[in-house]
Design a protein that fits this description.
Elements (H helix, E strand, L loop, with lengths): L2 H9 L3 H11 L4 E7 L5 E7 L3 H7 L1 E3 L25 E5 L5 E2 L6 E9 L10 H14 L3 E6 L1 E6 L14 H6 L1 H13 L4 E6 L5 E6 L4 H21 L3 E3 L15 E7 L2 E2 L12 H12 L1 H8 L3 H6 L9 E6 L4 E6 L6 H4 L1 E4 L8 H15 L30 H10 L3 H5 L1 H17 L5 H8 L4
Parallel strand pairs: 1-6, 14-15
Antiparallel strand pairs: 1-2, 3-4, 4-6, 5-6, 7-12, 8-10, 8-11, 9-10, 12-13, 12-16, 15-16
Helix pairs in contact: 4-12, 6-7, 7-12, 8-12, 9-13
The structure holds glutamic acid and magnesium ion (MG).
The site of magnesium ion has 4 residues, from loops.
């Protein structure tokens, strides 16, 4: 370490001190620093509260080998990253430091990964997202995003924790104290919950949160899932965010809602294009639609993703778009008359929570920014259920396997460059190794092996 950097750091303000005092008053004793790996697993190092300042100044050590960890904790390797040697530092983002309402005594902050010399780690997913968002902002584009969270809540034996029907009030009554505890914990953590409802599949629930800038949306997604998991645990429940909980059933989506803004105006509203899209808004959506097969590698990245991504389960398996069409991968939403300038957004339904949300946030932003001024036009929309059309008239399906999606990602002329070779190679190695891991497994075995992992 060269002396100047050491001196700079020693002279830096001590922001963690004030934050630490505040947390100590709330009874916090330990801080969890999380990052999400290429397998979509949230991994963690924790520090006592009195070491938070040290972590802010110097980071916390962790190996780069986590970049090639699989969902079952086995380890692969990749062209640039792999093997037991080396060290990285985890730097908590103090701006997101949150006392965890579902885990008394604990606080949380998402971490960025840097080298021991303080340089960004080339394969840090959160840094990738931050860089892309910064570049988009320079081009005048602001995206707002929100990840929807669907989850399965199971009793101790893994069967659904409730018996009431889909979307039924009975489920809310059965799980009344639990749901109230989840929503209360989120409120205490300043997460703006917009709505909660029981979903379609047995034991399935869902909540939506307010939109935020892409990195904040990814952070929030991690915080929400951790909070749900912690509260579930307190109530004696198991929780699954896996795309396929039960083979053959409706899965858990991790739909991404997004809107694109320039000069504080929503590009998805008030224009002359389809359903009020502006020229630039339409171009952004056309760019996203065109690159959805490649984006699936990132947003629907696991073997379980492709058990979920099938027709007539509202998972958006068709490569098309449509107004409020829940079978289309890209569902366009205008919002109600009178609020469209604020509410119009697009939903990418094909994504799920086995993905790394930072990679989704960065990749979607990169595609949107490239499309902004490209003058792209959307193809004709598909208004109903594509499965009911004569086969010749059906839109194409999105990729139907991990290798198909990874091949589309590798072929894409934008995303590999945006990710950079070390991150791209590590990511593809992990996802293809997971495919190999389950290549001979029946769907039920894939669901069983991954049900409680995400
Ligand atoms: N659970 C469905 C999925 O797999 C989505 C249901 C909905 O439209 O919210 O994505
Ligand atoms: Mg839903």
């Amino acid at each position: 370490m060269e002396p100047t950097r050491t001196a700079e750091r020693a002279a830096a303000p001590r922001p963690a001190a004030a934050a630490g005092d505040h947390l100590a008053r709330k009874g916090v004793r330990t801080v969890a620093l999380t990052w999400v790996d290429n397998a979509g697993i949230t991994r963690v190092k924790t520090v006592p509260l009195n070491r938070l300042q040290h972590a802010v100044d110097w980071g916390v050590g962790m190996s780069p080998v986590f970049d090639v960890f699989l969902v079952d904790d086995s380890i692969t390797t990749s062209r640039y990253i792999g093997g037991p040697a080396g060290d990285l530092r985890l730097f908590p983002d103090l701006g997101r430091l949150t006392a965890l309402a579902g885990q008394p005594g604990w606080a949380w902050a998402p971490a960025d990964r840097r080298t021991q010399d303080g340089e960004p780690h080339v394969a840090c997913q959160r840094t990738f997202a931050q860089n892309i968002v910064r570049q988009a902002a320079k081009a005048g584009l602001t995206l707002k995003m929100a990840f929807e969270v669907e989850w399965f809540v199971g009793a101790q034996d893994g069967t659904p924790a409730c018996r009431g029907p889909a979307y039924g009030m009975t489920r809310v009554i059965e799980l009344s104290a639990y749901i109230d505890a989840v929503l209360t914990a989120l409120r205490e953590q300043d997460v703006p919950v917009q709505q909660f409802h029981p979903e379609y599949a047995p034991g399935q629930l869902e909540l939506s949160v307010g939109a935020a800038d892409p990195v904040a949306a990814a952070d929030r997604n991690i915080l929400v899932r951790q909070t749900i998991r912690a509260v579930s645990q307190q109530h004696g429940y198991h929780v699954s965010f896996a795309p396929t909980v039960v083979a053959g059933g409706v899965g858990n989506g991790g739909h991404l809602h997004l809107s694109a803004w320039q000069d504080r105006a929503n590009l998805f509203s008030g224009g002359d294009g389809p359903h009020g899209l502006t020229d630039r808004g339409e171009s952004v959506l056309a760019g996203l639609l065109a690159r959805l097969p490649a984006l699936c590698a990132i947003g629907a990245p696991s073997p379980g993703s492709y058990l979920r991504l099938v027709p007539q389960r509202w998972a958006g398996p068709w490569h098309c778009w449509g107004l409020e069409n829940r079978e289309a991968a890209l569902r366009f939403i205008t919002g109600s008359a009178g609020e469209r300038d604020r509410a119009a957004n697009a939903e990418l339904k094909c994504f799920d929570a086995s993905a790394n949300p930072y990679l989704i946030a960065g990749a979607v932003t990169a595609v949107a920014a490239a499309a902004l001024s490209a003058g792209l036009r959307l193809p004709p929309e598909v208004p109903g259920d594509p499965a009911l059309l004569p086969e010749a008239d059906q839109p194409p399906r999105l990729p139907q396997s991990v290798p198909e999606a990874v091949a589309a990602l590798r072929k894409d002329d934008l995303l590999p460059d945006a990710l950079g070779a070390p991150l791209l190679e590590a990511f593809c190695a992990v996802r293809l190794a997971e495919h190999e891991l389950f290549a001979d497994a029946e769907p039920a075995a894939v669901a069983e092996a991954t049900r409680w992992k995400y």
